[in-house]
Amino acid sequence: MDDRSQQPPDGPRIGADEWVARQGEHRRQNELTRRLGRAGERIHPAFRFFALVAGIAIFGIATSDQYYQRVGFNTLYYAALALGLNVVVGWAGLLDLGYVAFFGLGAYAYALLDSPKFHHHWPALATMVVVGFGCAIVGILVSLPSRRLFGDYLAIITLFFGQIFYNLVGNLSLTNGQNGMTNLDPLNFFGFHITTVRQYFYVALILFTVVTCVLWLVNNSRTGRAWRSLREDQMAAQLLGMPVNWLKLLAFAFGASVAGLSGTVFASLEVNIFPNNFYLSVLITLYAIVILGGAGSMPGVMLGAFTIIVGLEVLATPDNARLLFYAVIAAGLVLWLRPWFWVPIVIGGTVAFGFVVSAIATAAWPDATKPTSFGGQNLTMSSWVVELTNPTRGGAYAYGALIAAVLGVTLLKGWVQKVALIPVLYLAAFAWENELALNPSVTAEILLGALLITLMIVRPTGLLGQHRVEIV
Amino acid sequence: MNWDEFVQLTVIGLTDGCLFALIALGFSIVYGILKLLNFAQGDVFMIGAFIGYFVLTGFGGPDAPDMPVPLLLVLMFLFAMVGCGLLGVVIERFAYRPLRNAPRIAPLISALGVSFFLQNSALLVFGGDRFYGSAELDSGLYRFPQYGLQWGPLQISILRMLTVGLTLVLCLALTLLVAKTQIGKAMRATAVDREAATMMGINTDRVIAFAFFVGSAVSGAAGVMFGLMFDNITNTIGFENGLLAFTAAVIGGIGSIPGAMLGGVVVGLAQSYTTGYLPSGATFQDVWVFSLLIIVLLVRPTGLLGKADIRKV
Amino acid sequence: MTALLELSGVTLHFGGLKVISELDLVVSENEIVSLIGPNGAGKTTVFNLITGVYDPEEGDIRLDGRSLVGVVAHKRTKLGVSRTFQTLRLFLNLTVEENVMAATYCHTRSHVWQSILRTPFQRREERDVRALADDKLAFFGDRLAGYRRRQPAYSLSYANRRRLEIARATATKPRLLLLDEPAAGMNPVETHEITELIGRLRDEGGYTILVIEHDMHVVEGISDRVVALDHGVKIAEGSFETVATNERVVEAYLGLRATEEDAAR
């Protein structure tokens, strides 16, 4: 019989009232995060957000290292970009694969309006207004043909649009083709020129704050409800009075606008922009951010941006990348291996295995292998990982073998799987040192791709996304 | 009207179109069975091109092959098709199968990840600078004595004839496979209603894996052809050509094998004519093809030869 | 009583199959009409025609005298047509409240910029929307009350989901309410509740209701009139007693009555 109690239950209760649809219940929050979450929820979202902004602002003052300021800037404009993508993908549920083109549109628009190319030097606000509305209109135009089509076709059309944009700016003389546009003006707000990286950091912070506020306000109104309804069940939404086509256009317009504005700020700091700045790699990064953070959740997207942009920065230098690599593996083992006694077994086993293999390898093939130098770091490692004198071929095979090994391990079960981890982990370290670490930028891209795949399979709601139920 | 030019452009368009048709074929087969846009299809094509290259250089290379050229070609195709077929099966098994019952957007994003992963893995392992676009570096790679055919205004190289011939053979083989064989019937059943097919005793996992094998093998063959025709292969050819192949599949009617062929030819010809006849046609090539896609989708959303999707509301 | 909904000569084909055949149907204001017939008779198709999922090939559909043919679906809702679905189509990941509030879209008018700036007009509308949602949910008494309103819709039991769907449908401020098998899958107690509920909807809410139902107890309990459909053709119309005993209706559900000659063989 139906329960008439007016008190909320403390947790999921099994009874007449709880009937969760079958598809995918993976609630793995532990006690601590749940308590933190509850505590956090009691504070009004506005206060939480402004506390965050204040924290970031303080960071901007506290650090005087231009590098950190630049990373902060990157995180902020990527967060703004991702929030825009979140409107389209997370709220309206539309797969927009050409989103990066709007980012590029904003950047190139700024380049045309504020550079020596045509001798225009518009004030920043004017450019931003033009970019904001212009991109919105282009966004609407791009999504117009897809009104009557299924989500799949929308993906193709938007992907194509992104490709066209890339090809056009790479070939037209208007945009200097592959040579890019150079010497873009610093942002000019009523005569005040934004020149230092720290100042740009604050501009990005303002952009991020404004975007978040506007989007939050829109989401908590009838438009946001309609978007989320449309994501749930497009036909039901339509039949309940929501103009689905118009809503899709609106979502695209918002996303495009946000992307364009981010592009303007980005272009201004970069000073020189090239077609490659607005291509597939950025798109994948953005999707990784949105999915990792949790599509549909603004705090999630922010967290995702921070994690990935900082992560990519760390991966850019081989030494830091190495630390991150081992740290992530260790963390992964700790988080995933149960019962607990497996953790020291696997880690210890890998270490021992490594020393043994290394000793054998350096003895048997003294020419092919050499004691590692590791850029001057930890000398103990030098007798653990085998470093090849000529890593090109061996490294390539190691990488191939690693992929096969990792896929194979996922097929095993039980203690066999855990024991098999030992050689696989060593192989991973071997492949890392001899192949992946040598090409950090490509490795970063590979990891992003792998991250997307893994996320969709293991945790599609990301870090902070809400647990979703879908009837398929 | 310059007939020679027209004929030449048509020939180029048709043969280029065959490449798109083959990738589109793989794409269509997968979509037909799983309703999944396999973004990685183009990258499988790219891997096929590389496999062909390595077989070629492994057996002496274009200048001093260890065996008669036709035999070498057969081996290249064989290795590429089998290798790509297996790659396709692996991709399906690990990146798509866990998402069989997830909402539509999940395997699409996973496919995107796979595509990116493959592109960059190829870059990492094969090295981008080895095939860096410049003609001097690469003209030696796929150079074969190109015996041409001259018949009136027609001028077709042997490689182009090979391409068209192989494409027709593969298309025919695939059509027969789907229409006449037991496994083809199983594929069609799985495409219509997967759950019902399982209940009828069809091992849908195996059928889907087979579909991926076939579709990827065909794309792999296209990769070798690409290398033979265009010399220069790099890790991004998959994405670019893949996109055009998707367009071809959609124009022709997604899920339809003859549709993929038709769509490929249409896209190939469109590219060829716009490059040849329109001023700065090459720059705006993509725009024309895109416009064509939009027009077809607006006028006939299921494509030229596609079937309407009946859904119960 | 004036006719609120009028279908005249409506015909529809799906490919080669004639699903609706010259259908005439009139529903007067404040009436409760039940649409019955065996599976595949075309009842949900009639709903789809009225709400705009399909347009009739021949014939006309009029709401309060105004033709609905060619009018896009979401505009029809604004004109006063609302429905529930045979297979529930709730917005599962939205809260119970949000499901109902979302349906108020068609009669709210705030633009996006007004939402961003939180103008007094928009804030007032939001308050009204929330009050309306409260009101519609309160119609179901304790069932959808209290903490349950902020729970995601997927946490509701089956019967509560059906109720939420009805609440959501009423939030569009309809004049005509189309209920597609509202008692499907319910036990006798819940079925009895639904029967009372539909009556209350008409009496308290003033809605005109067209119901598709298989459960004859419900049909008997609520209907002013019953219309029977088979293979897209109207085969009987009238009071429940008239239709339930009509030979063609019995034949459609149960098959031909065996004659004495057949029995002798």
Summarize the structure.
The complex is a heterotrimer of chains A (about 475), B (about 325) and C (about 260). Chain A is mainly α and about 475 residues long. Helices cover about 65% and strands about 5% of the residues of chain A.
Structure description:
The complex is a heterotrimer of chains A (472), B (313) and C (265). By secondary structure, chain A is mostly helical. Chain A has 17 helices and six strands. In chain A, the strands form three sheets. Chain A has a two-stranded antiparallel ribbon with strand order 1-2. Chain A has a two-stranded antiparallel ribbon with strand order 3-4. In chain A, a hairpin with a 2-residue loop joins strand 3 and strand 4 (192-193). In chain A, 44% of the residues are buried. Mean pLDDT of chain A is 82; it is low at 1-29. Chain B is built from twelve helices and two strands; from the N terminus they run αααααββααααααα. In chain B, 71% of the residues lie in helices and 3% in strands. Chain B starts with a helix and ends in a 14-residue tail after the last helix. With 313 residues, chain B is mainly alpha-helical. A two-stranded antiparallel ribbon of chain B has the order 1-2. Chain C is 40% helix and 23% strand. In chain C, helix 3 packs across helix 5 (120-138), helix 3 packs parallel to helix 6 (158-170) and helix 7 (188-205) runs parallel beside helix 8 (216-222). Chain C starts with a strand and ends with a helix. At the A-B interface, helix 6, helix 11, helix 15 and helix 17 of A face helix 3, helix 4, helix 10 and helix 12 of B.
Key traits:
heterotrimer, B: 313 residues, mainly alpha, two-stranded antiparallel ribbon, C: 265 residues, alpha/beta, 6-stranded mixed β-sheet, 4-stranded antiparallel β-sheet, 23% strand
Question: Helix proportion of residues of chain B, in percent?
Answer: over 70%
DSSP helix fraction of chain C = 25-40%
Number of helices of chain B: 12
Largest pleated sheet of chain C? 6 strands, mixed
Q: What are the low-pLDDT stretches of chain B, counting only 5+ consecutive residues below 50? A: 129-146
Largest interface: A-B, 53 and 49 residues
Strand fraction of chain C equals: 15-25%
Question: Radius of gyration of chain B in whole Å, from Cα?
Answer: 19 Å
**If you average the pLDDT of chain C, what whole number results?**
89
How confident is the prediction overall: mean pLDDT of chain B?
82
Please provide the ordered H/E string of secondary-structure elements of chain C.
Answer: EEEHEEHEHHHHEHEHEEHHH
Cα end-to-end separation of chain B: 53 Å
Radius of gyration of chain C, Cα only, in angstroms? 20 Å
Overall geometric form of chain C: globular
Sequence stretches where pLDDT stays below 50 over 5 or more residues of chain C: none
The strand order across the widest sheet of chain B is: 1-2
Quaternary structure classification: heterotrimer
Question: What shape does the CA trace of chain B take?
Answer: globular
